[in-house]
Amino acid sequence: MYGELPELIAFLNENGYRGLIKTNGTLPIEKSDNFRRIAAFHNLNSPPKYFDEILIVDKLQRKEKEAYCLAQGWPYHVIGYNKETFDNAGHGFRKCAFMDPHGHPTPCPSAPVLWSEWPDKYALEYTGLKPGLVCPNCKAAVDAWRFLPESWKI
After folding, report:
1. pLDDT in tens, 65-89
2. What is the pTM (predicted TM-score) of this model?
3. Sequence-ordered strand ranges (E) for the chain
4. Which residues contact 150 (CB under 8 A, 6 or more apart)?
5. CB neighbours of 40 closer than 8 A, spacing ≥ 6?
6. What is the number of structural domains in the chain?
7. Which of 16, 134, 136, 144 has the smallest count of CB within 10 Å of its CB?
């Protein structure tokens, strides 16, 4: 997907979308006004290079990674491990659209999947995002909410 990522971001920008791009921060992804680059900090020996903000997973060397980010002056947020929301945080989304790591539109990761509504899960061509209702306890939405600029939270 990385080869087509600039084209996808340009298309989404032109059509008024805003969102987050979550990666490990090792590949150069150009900065965008409408998309924040969120890099998951996986390895203390190989920290992310390309990001707007760092994502640290609770329970996975959290203190060491927070100390590193503080020493570098990097902005970061801590998210829950697996399906946990460690601090009872919530989100303000009414609808969300998600993409899987392969660039395919996908329903809310916390909701039961009704594939009859998503018939072409493995399509190779972009078929359009389908914003849908998002459950109030959706960890993916809570995690995304942490990284959105306040001006985007309308």
Report:
1. 999 999 999 999 999 888 777 788 8
2. 0.76
3. 19-23, 35-40, 53-57, 76-79, 95-96, 98-99, 105-106, 132-133
4. none
5. 22, 23, 24, 25, 48, 54, 55, 57
6. 1
7. 16
